[in-house]
Amino acid sequence: xKVDGGLxxxxxxxxxxxxxxxxxxxAAGYNGIWTAETNHDPFFPLLxxxxxTSDVDLGTGIAVAFSRSPMTLAATANDLQAFTGGRFIxxxxxxxxxxxxxxxxxxxxxxxxxxxxxxxxxRAIWACWNDGTKLDFQGDFYTHTLMTPFFDPxxxxxxxxxxxxxxxxxxxxxxxxxxxxxxxxxAFTTERYLREVTIPALExxxxxxxxxxxxxxxxxxxxxxTGSDEESFEKSKAGTRQxxxxxxxxxxxxxxxxxxxxxxxxxELNAMSKQGKWKEMGELxxxxxxxxxxxxxxxxGIAPAFTARFGDVVDRLSFYAPYKNDPDTWLPxxxxxxxx
Length: 340
Known about the structure:
alpha/beta; single chain; 12 strands; eight-stranded parallel barrel; 48% helix; globular
């Protein structure tokens, strides 16, 4: 199993810190490094990381697709693929309607169908640049039919970048299986949801493209609760409960709760989120829910627990966890998982 790290947010706005973080994580033995589109652009940190690393995969986990056009994103991804020497992974996500419309001021409709077309449009653009194929993509949401030599960067020496797609719902997951190179499981998932809902949906999408699970990578960001003493363990529990509650408040993710019989909690969490009751929301996540969404274990028990849950279905793993920069605690976990 591959184990991935991530470039964490830096509130000083000193982008140079990302380069140092990346170098440290490659030296620590991570297989990949991911960025998120939160309080920083997801692409600039990877540009800096490329200069201080040589072997690790560098990916966005995730970049918001619907805040951009296929053409602009195809160009950014193409440049990063060339600059990283073919190590770039374009990890995409849809975000949710309020953010797309109210934060990005972009259109929202039919997210799964739109995402499928978005990715196919990018692939058509890359085919134009790499193979000389005439650009003639005409869809329901996107149309790209103009490419003159002045705007054509020509073939990428490393080919088109890999495209991963994040999803929770079955329709978006099917899209990943049909048109992507990999799937990013949302942290708000469980072993049961992964096996009973996600994998079958992926397989339906793969069937449509004549492929199997062996043809894609499944990346599984996951919650872990651990600590070196009782105080740190309890702090980790509290923080993880709040994160689970935050995701659980999202209507689009209710299906995960429904599968476990916890669906009635979603509207309650949603109402509390609108009131800013973040701490109180976390208190509604009981021990049973915590154990279902997160591996709760001492450091020595993390790798065996994750391997038992996901070892036969997940190809690469990253964590919502403390201590990732503490070598004494975390590096043995990385090594054990990589041997799994």
